[in-house]
Every structure is written in C-alpha cells, then in structure tokens.
Amino acid sequence: MVVKRKLSCGSKGFDFPNIPKAPRSSRRKVSGKRADDDYESEICAIDLLASLAGKLLEESESSSTSTYAFEGDNLDHLGGVVKLKQELEDGYNKPCLSKFFDQGNPASKSTSENTSVTCLPFSSLENDCILEKTPVSDCKPACGLKSLVGEETCVVNEDAGSGQGEATGALKDPSHLHLQSPESVHLDGDVKLPPCTDQLPNDSFEGYGNHSKLVCRDDDENYCKYYKFSDKCKSYRPPFRVGNRRIMQSVKTKYGGRSISKLKCFEDTRTDGRLKALYRKRKLCYGYNPWKRETVHKKRRLSAKGLVVNYDGGLSSESVSNSPEKGESENGDFSAAKIGLLSKDSRVKFSIKSLRIPELVVEVPETATVGLLKRTVKEAVTALLGGGIRIGVLVQGKKVRDDNNTLSQTGLSCRENLGNLGFTLEPGLETLPVPLCSETPVFSMPTDSTKLSERSAASPSLDTRIPIPLQDEDPLINLGNSVENNHELVPHPSDISAADEQPSSDSRALVPVSALESEALALVPVNEKPKRTELSQRRTRRPFSVTEVEALVRAVEEVGTGRWRDVKLRSFENASHRTYVDLKDKWKTLVHTASISPQQRRGEPVPQDLLDRVLGAHRFWSQHQMKQNGKHQVATSTTMVVESGSSV
DNA sequence: GTTAGGG
DNA sequence: CCCTAAC
C-alpha cells in the first residue's frame, strides 16, 4: 500500500531555500554536433561556381589530356587555380574580409599587384582547406575562371551585411554570362560589392586548368579554402596513384581570437562532376552565433501578383589571362609562369557577369516582413543550390549537350563572337519535393508539381516554394542588425524575367499566399531536396510580452513547474508559436531575471511584481517537487515494505 | 510526446 | 531558441 500524503500548502508559506531539482546528472551532455553536410548548402554557391568552372573546363578540354596529379605540395604543377572567396557566416556574411589577410597571409598580396593571377604559396595552405586534388589536365587550358572582387575576386554574397543592401550575392540571369576575349576581361559592373569591398583581399577566384580553390570566410574571419580539380581529370590518374582521390582539408577557424587549425583527409568517391565541399564541423569554419540571421540580396518588387524577387549580382567570375609573364607570385609557389602548361593562344576568357536563377517561387503572406522575405528567399536559394544544380551552356541560343566537344568545336573561341554564350542553371536530378519545415501545415502549392517539373525541365527555371513564418517582426531588427533593413522594397518596373531567354516563364518569384490565421506558413521546395540546414532553420525570436509573462506566471503558479504541457494548454493554447518548451525556457529565464539585479536585466522590463511572483512560485514548486520526491521515496520504501510483508 | 537542462 | 538525453 502506498502512503499518499497531500501537500497542504498555499502559494506562500514556503520559504525553503532553493534546492536544485534532482539532476539528471547521469546524462551526459553531448556537445552539439553538426552534421557534416551542414556546410554544403552554405557553400553551395561555391559549389555552383566550381561546377561552372569545371564545366567550362571540361568543355575546353579535349578528351585526352590530363597528366599530372596534384599531390601534396606539388603545386607547381597545377594546371590552374580557381579560387572562390565566399563570405559566409552561417550562411550569412559580413562585409569585411581584410583581417585574415592583414595577418600576413601571403596569398592576400598577390592580387593587389595588378597581377591577374593570384598565387597562393603552399606554405599558406596549412591554413587553407584543400578539399580535393585531382590530376591536372595538360590540355590546352582553353579557359580559366577568375572571379572578381572589384575586378578580380568573385564574391558569393548571400548577405551583404551592409547598409547598402543590394550588395553582391545573388544569382543572375544565365544569359548574362558572357564570354570575353582575353583582352576584355572585366566585369560589367553589374556586380555590386559590399561596402568593405575595398578591404577585400585580392584573393580572388582564379582558374587554370582544372585546379580550383575555394575560399570562404565568415564574419569571424574564419577562412576555409578549398582546392578542387575538375572531375574530368579523374580519369587521368597518375600511375603512382591508387584508389580514390585523396582530399585534404585544412580548416582554420578563429573564435574569439582563438584559432583552430585542422587538417583532414578524405576520400572522395564522388563522380557526379560537382565540387564536393567537405565540411566536418560547422564550427570549424563558422563562428557559431545562434542568433544570426541571414538574408539574400535581391531586388524585389511588388507586382500585381505579389512580391517578385530578383536575384541580382553576386555570382560572378572572370577568366584569367594566363599569360606566363603574369602571375608570378611573390612566393612563386605556383604561377602560370612556372606551370607552363597553359598555352598562350586559344585561351578564352569568360566574364560571367552574373548567374540568375530563372525562376524561384516562394510563398509569403502579405504580412510577412521584409526580413522574413529575405530569409525565405535565402532558404529557397540554398535549397535550390544545395539540391544539386546543373549548368547548361547555350550557344547562339542553343543548348550544347555534348560535353565532350571542345569550346572551339562548339564554336567558341576568342575570335568568335562570344556574345551569344549563355549558361543556365538547371535543377539537379534529385528534385523530390520535401517540406522544409513542418511547424504548420503545408500550403497547397499554387501549381501542381508536375507542371512545375515540366516547366523546370523544359527551361532553366527552378521552382522552390518556401514557407515562412508569418510574423510581424524582422529578426534582423530584433537582433539589432539594422543594416539589412535599409533595404527597401524597390519598385521594379521591368519584369525581372524580361531579359530571360525564356520569356514564357513568368517572373513570379514570389506568390502571395492567402493570409492564414496561423502564424507560420509552410514551404515546399518543389524541385530541390533541402538539406538539414534548411530543415533546422532557427525560428524567429519572439520576445515574450509582459502580458505573456503574466499569463505564464499565473499558469505556473497554478499548475507548477514541470508541467509545461499543462501550462501551455492552460494559458497558451492559442499561441501556436509558443511551445511548451518555449514556456519552460521562458520560465527559466524569468527565474534568472528575477534573481539578478534590475541593472543586469535586459530587454523589455518585466514588472517587479511579476518577477516576485516568479520567484515565489519557483520557490514553492521547487520545494513542492522536493517534497514529492521525498514522498515518493518514502512511498517506494513503504511499498516495498508492505509488499514484502504482505506476502500477497 | 514530455520534461529537464545545457548551449 | 536549439538540441538532446531521459523519461
């Protein structure tokens, strides 16, 4: 028989010292581990560029060419380097990149000296991230890619992080990709740069042969650099090589002034021709700031149908003139001059003004804020790119399907009119619609997925439907990150798709969704499989109002702590955005807030009387729980005694 | 699915 | 607000 005693106590009268709850001490707190693929979506833009570079290179190669495997520090033999710099910060970036280079990284210097070749001394690689190494083609490197910052660096900017907004970062119309002769290498000025562009090191995106290097950086001055060779070269394995390519990764990160360097090796078995970005720890490359939010730079306008998002600028690359007389780096580790693999002729320069995702469909309610819109678009782009994207090449408006033809065979050479070269972004093969979030019911999709798929297959358009929470707050505002809010809804008289080679593909980048009473909307990317990163999108911070706090306090006073579900049902049943975990967390912070001096408190002040009630309830229910525990123990032993003695 | 606690 | 272990 279990002895049960009723606790007869009011909400006051107990003033026991706070006694910690029975800790679940046995459980180990495993530090949050990030999925390896967390990074992939975040550098998908790099992936994209690299894929593009690889594609271009592939097409420029004749089928028999690779000779050398880049191994270890044999950078002298690199056929080329493509370096991409990406400012990333947990998917978002900040404008300034200078620090890393200010610290004496020699790689940062070469580009600032009017050389079109950025030479990265291998010695610096230990701070870099070498992802892949493959044999370098010795074919006539018909082209190279060099990205531009200012004029030399490619910046894939997902977030300008600048008050100027509209900075670099988006993907633009493939038709804007241009081929240029070596003599006319430069950007069309279509790429906008963040305010700190001038600080950007000239650690630019360059390409020679098949070797590419990707550099990304987050706002904590964390850098990752990736080297990658065209997959095409996989078939040209040096005799001494066995097995898969080895991939080395060296990541240097810095947190709070501390640097962490890691060197890893991977085996890459991938054969899909895409760059493989290998991340093992998100935090290795990105400072962890759980409150950071991201945006995508974009133009947007309100149309009759709704918001239209136009991605503008940001993804650009430029070919490199690999003239031997150039590119001798200070350290001379690998330069075009030393490489000597690149012929002086038949080189084609590409100035990729921009890439644009032809069609991106997201759904937002009218009441969504700009910040949420940005977030949504960012998710859409991330999902899009992360799902695997293919590059199509258009010449004279016709799609070039034979990847084995050389550029000249395709009719592309520096002597030809290259104005009609275009690139398209196409959805990858994996295009199963997957909900990105499930907090709320998924909307009906404006059009059936079949049609979307058809349209996507028939054109370079990509549809990605993304739900966003319907909220009245701009997370960026809440974060005090006001720079992004300088963006305005800019009326955009022209249809963003007007210049598209697919005029039929309408421009509804954003389709208004009927307002739902629920505070969150669902999204369904139509063509891309989102990655876990998207799935675990952090919710928008929604500070508790005093009213909510009061309701919470009242509920806790009534049902006690430890019954958060009841609290939720009792006082927050209609607040769909408040989960019982939220309430529990809020209570936790309330107790803490009430325990500290008013001077230490932040945010919207909570009336002292409420805080007093918090402490009172906390004390009471803590004690109550203790008594419960003690009673339970007594009861247990009593039961045991009874059972053992009852012989029943 | 809830709860507790660390991050 | 997220994540995870323990229930």
From TrEMBL:
GO terms for cellular component: chromosome, telomeric region; nucleus. The keyword Methyltransferase does not apply. Residues 446-462, 634-648 have a biased composition (Polar residues). Residues 536-591 form the Myb-like domain. Residues 536-595 form the HTH myb-type domain. It is found in: Nucleus. Keywords: DNA-binding, Nucleus, Transcription, Transcription regulation. PROSITE patterns: HTH_MYB (PS51294), MYB_LIKE (PS50090), UBIQUITIN_2 (PS50053). It comes from the Eukaryota. InterPro entries: Homeodomain-like_sf (IPR009057), Myb_dom (IPR017930), SANT/Myb (IPR001005), TPR1-6-like_ubiquitin (IPR057625), TRP_plant (IPR031105), Ubiquitin-like_dom (IPR000626). One of its GO terms (molecular function) is double-stranded telomeric DNA binding. Residues 348-413 form the Ubiquitin-like domain. Residues 1-35, 445-468, 484-507, 625-648 are annotated as: Disordered. Pfam families: Ubiquitin_TPR1. This is Uncharacterized protein.
